[in-house]
Prior knowledge:
Blueprint: H1 12-19, H2 21-32, E1 36-42, E2 45-51, E3 55-63, E4 66-71, H3 74-77, H4 83-93, H5 119-128, H6 131-144, H7 146-157, H8 164-177, H9 185-207, H10 211-228, H11 238-257, H12 261-274, H13 283-286, H14 288-307, H15 324-341, H16 344-351, H17 358-370, H18 374-387, H19 394-406, H20 410-423, H21 427-437, H22 443-464, H23 479-487, H24 491-501, H25 505-515, H26 520-536, H27 540-559, H28 563-577, H29 581-588
Antiparallel strand pairs: 1-2, 2-3, 3-4
Helix pairs in contact: 1-2, 1-4, 2-4, 6-7, 7-8, 8-9, 8-10, 9-10, 9-11, 10-11, 12-14, 12-15, 14-15, 15-16, 16-17, 17-18, 18-19, 19-20, 20-21, 21-22, 23-24, 24-25, 25-26, 26-27, 27-28, 27-29
Amino acid sequence: MAVSGLRDRLEREALRGRAGDRTFQRGQRYAAEGRVSGIVEEGGDLSGTVAGTDDYEVRLWLDGDELAASCDCPVGEDGVFCKHMVALALAWLDGEAEASEADHRVPRPRPARPRRVTIDDIRTHLESLDHAALVELVLAQADRDDSLRERLALRVAMTDATGAGADLVRRAIDQAARAPDFVRYADAHGYAQGIHAAVDLVEGILNDGSAGVVIELCEHALGRIERAMEHVDDSDGEMGGLLERVQELHHAACEAARPDPANLAARLFAWELRDELDVFSCAALTYAGVLGAAGLAEYRRRAELEWAKVPPLAPGADAGGSFADRRFRITSIMESLARAAGDVDELISIKSRDLASPYAFLEIARVCLDAARADEALDWAERGMRAFPGTPDGRLRAFLAELYHQRTRHDEAIALIWAAFEGGPTLEGFLLLKSHAGRVDAWPDWRARALDTAREAVVRAQATARPARFRWDVPADGSALARMYLSEGDVDAAWREAKALGCSEAMWRELARRRESDHPADAIPIYQREVEALLGTKRNDGYEAAVELLGHIRGLMVTLGAEAEFAAYLAAVRAAHGRKRNFTSKLAAMGW
């Protein structure tokens, strides 16, 4: 498709929608400042250089009907539609780098750019001004810049931090946290930075010595951030980082101001009990030094009243329902109080109220073992295995096996691990069995038994298998058995089992890579299937990988003296995929 076919995908509002408002505006500014140079239109692609922190190479093209783009800046390399991509698109649309048709295939010489003014240059200039000139410069800029004027007003008002300054900071937090219906990933960083700027003001008040005001401002900010997080794509975790920063400020302010311990305990407990984001998780531990004996007593009083409402759960009980989240949080609170007091018996008692899962027994056993109460740890682990004879937790099984080894009860330990492997042979189970049997030099016998069992399980499954009904149904095959052999370096045995029982494409590729040096003819058909799969993706990265793999196949066939067969195979690939122009152009560049 000609470059002009990009125009429909590079319409300004479409670009704004793809990049987000903030990124679009930055790209628009870059284009207007003439930062785009060396625009080249060739083979359906648009490319150019955009000057930013560094010089970045940008490329735009159509992948089918969709706009594709690349940029070697850090943001672009993460797959985000960056400001440099926007700048290239707008510069081309605006005709700022128009070239004749002959120029389309040759980059124009890049004009020399003037030396970039650095922040150190600006600092040197400002330091050279007298006080009055500097004041006038700042006021003139503030008259044109609402954001600067507001920041200056806040600094003035903050001299009265307990009054107007605190109110202004509170409004600044509200304004920064106010957002449209949803903040997309591309805009999340700028949105979070706006709230960080408001929190900077809160930190400034703390540094000025008004810690009491900061406690209230932090709690206000935490509430606003929590509500905002419901409408933000926080894939990078920046909003979570904001919560952590404000909580740390809150703790520092409490240490400095020493608020009434009973009132603080009431607020922290209420917040922790309802909070789904764990802002004040384990507050009794974190704030113990601030709460003191009186605050911790009030915290415990409230916790025990709530804990009394929690019913015990027997093994296999259903712990779901509307109470589940609240149960989890009050349990966490009670555990933090027990840990703060160093009371192991209380911690065991709290955990014993929920024995609905095998993992609950494991947690109690670990508490006992950490407290050097090994006999109790063994008892709880064995109770867990008895409570869930059909579906024990693998972690509980491994924990109990380790305790058996420590008591030289090796046969019982290996029997536990074998029972799990026999119920469903996997590579992980095979390796675990190897580690346990190897302690008593019994691995050769257990190895043979394990491999026979794994093979018999596949044969039984294949004999009773029904036709697959859905494309995601995975047929029984020898993949797991082949992995077991590969884990011990026996590539030939793995190959035999794969040939006899079948295996997944991923396993075939692994076998081909392990086998190609000694048996290249076995690897070639597997790699040829992988080439077809890569070309089927219809993606440029798939095309690049396919061309690279074709080169590898060529090398193997040359080793076998089969150059003519490779030429015929390559011709067949070209004929089958000749309409994929990006692929054929990459293939042509190889010169085969």
